[in-house]
Design brief:
This protein is of the alpha+beta class and about 400 residues long. The protein is about 40% helix and about 25% strand. It has helices at about 10-25, 35-40, 50-60, 65-70, 90, 100-115, 235-245, 250, 295-320, 320-325, 325-350, 355-370, 375-385; strands at about 5-10, 30, 45-50, 70, 75-80, 85, 95-100, 120, 125-130, 135-140, 145-150, 155, 175-190, 200-205, 205-210, 220-225, 260-275, 275, 280, 290. Helix 1 runs parallel beside helix 6, helix 9 (about 295-320) packs antiparallel against helix 11 and helix 12 (about 355-370) packs across helix 13. The model has no long low-confidence stretch (mean pLDDT about 95). Bound molecules: adenosine-5-diphosphoribose and P-hydroxybenzoic acid (PHB).
């Protein structure tokens, strides 16, 4: 098979990129290791920046998002005694959209056939070849036979564990990583949210987050030690802990119900540089990971593919090779600022095992300053809604 752009991975990054390139008439093929059900079964967050919703609108794929999503004008920080509202709409003129990222993935997958976006699922042993030359190619196994795709570019949208990043020689690439000494235990339940907006809570016992998927389905998280087991957290124990950490105002409105899903995820900050090597270009989790505190994961993938699609279209339309050459530095500039915000909010809101009494006072003083400062709230708000492309 021959195509212009071969994309490894059909998660949010690969799907968004594929649709953007198809919309511009480029030949694209996505090669996905798993089945469609597996891709849809991945646990994902639920906040979309305007950058991401704009891409869906540009593709004409935002109808269900606007019909079912919840536009939010603000969110809350809690310090154990009060709720501090960050009025993102008043401070930045922007909202965020609360819409399950799984639903966004579903919308992108559903539109692929009608848009002529070819996705090869259940592709095993995907390997990248000759990415440093002008004629890279992929090999993979499907339905028992070995196959090859010759292309002009390979876009690695295969997540943190995919092969694309590994195709960049260690002498060229540099990884930056921070692993946090705790994880998030999440619960999904068909109960009404305790608040109409999200609440990020810093409690002496640890972090908690009250989020939602709709007005009848809630998503909550608590910080737990890395060695915690889900089976040690029956629903009632988790609801009790959430009530304590979110504080009395939220607890008074917190409905309880059986877990539809309950799991623990580790937190890390990770960036790989460069995001381009020869004809291989990385986007999304293949190049960077953020702790979920700032809800940046999918939104960073969206800005990556906005830059990447622009660069590839410039190459094919105007033979502009500079845009492709400049992709990595352009994407990394936004990636690092989102990494900074996610790391800063994670440090502010979580209880670190090696934190002492002074560190705790610094967190509370920081929250007290934010409560009293429009400048501090504006800084948080403009990062939360997403910095400009
Ligand atoms: N061959 C082909 N496909 C692969 C391979 C491989 N060897 N390895 C991984 N993949 C596929 C995975 O099966 C997955 O569908 O690549 C896809 C990567 O998708 P994600 O891990 O979701 O990463 P990305 O698309 O970058 O998503 C960005 O969206 O919801 C958020 O939290 C999520 O931060 C993440 C963000
Ligand atoms: C979620 O709803 O899953 C969610 C929301 C905001 C975050 C992280 C996760 O920062």
């Amino acid at each position: 098979m021959k195509t212009q752009v071969a994309i490894v991975g059909a998660g949010p990054a690969g799907l968004l990129l594929g649709h953007l390139l198809r919309a511009e008439g480029l030949d694209v093929v996505l090669v996905e290791r798993a089945s469609p059900d597996y891709v849809l079964g991945r646990i994902r967050a639920g906040v979309l920046e305007r950058t991401t919703t704009d891409l869906m609108d540009r593709l004409g794929l935002g109808a269900r998002m606007h019909a079912e999503g919840l536009p939010h004008d603000g969110f809350h920080l809690a310090d154990g005694e009060r709720l501090i509202r960050i009025d993102i709409a008043a401070l930045t003129g922007r909202q965020v959209m609360v819409y399950g990222q799984t639903e966004l993935t579903r919308d992108l997958m559903a539109a692929a056939p009608e848009r002529g976006l070819e996705i090869l699922y259940d592709a095993a042993d995907v390997a990248l070849h000759d990415v440093e030359g002008d004629a890279p190619y992929l090999t993979y196994r499907k339905d028992g036979s070995d196959r090859r795709i010759d292309c002009d570019f390979i876009c690695g949208c295969d997540g943190y564990h995919g092969p694309s990043r590994q195709a960049i020689p260690p002498s060229v690439g540099t990884a930056f990583e921070k692993v946090y000494p705790f994880g998030w235990l999440g619960i999904l339940a068909d109960v009404a949210p305790c608040n109409h907006e999200l609440i990020y809570a810093n409690h002496a016992r640890g972090f908690a987050l009250a989020s939602m998927r709709s007005e009848t389905r809630s998503r909550y998280y608590i910080q737990v030690p890395l060695d915690e087991k889900v089976e040690d957290w029956p629903d009632e124990r988790l609801w009790d802990e959430l009530a304590v950490r979110l504080g009395p105002e939220a607890a008074a409105h917190m409905a309880r119900g059986p877990a539809l899903e309950k799991s623990i995820a580790p937190l890390r900050s990770f960036v790989f540089e460069p995001m381009r090597h020869g004809r291989l270009l990385l986007a999304g989790d293949s190049a960077h990971i953020v702790p979920p505190t700032g809800a940046k994961g999918l939104n960073l993938a969206a800005s990556d593919v906005a830059y990447l699609s622009e660069a590839l279209v410039a190459y094919y339309r105007r033979n502009d090779r500079d845009a492709v050459a400049g992709y990595s530095s352009r994407a990394l500039a936004r990636v690092w600022k989102a990494e900074r915000f996610s790391w800063q909010l994670t440090r502010l809101m979580h209880r670190f095992p090696d934190n002492d009494a002074f560190d705790r006072r610094m967190q509370l003083a920081d929250l007290d300053y934010i409560a009293s400062s429009t400048a501090a709230q504006t800084s948080i708000a403009e990062n939360y809604v997403g910095l400009p492309l």
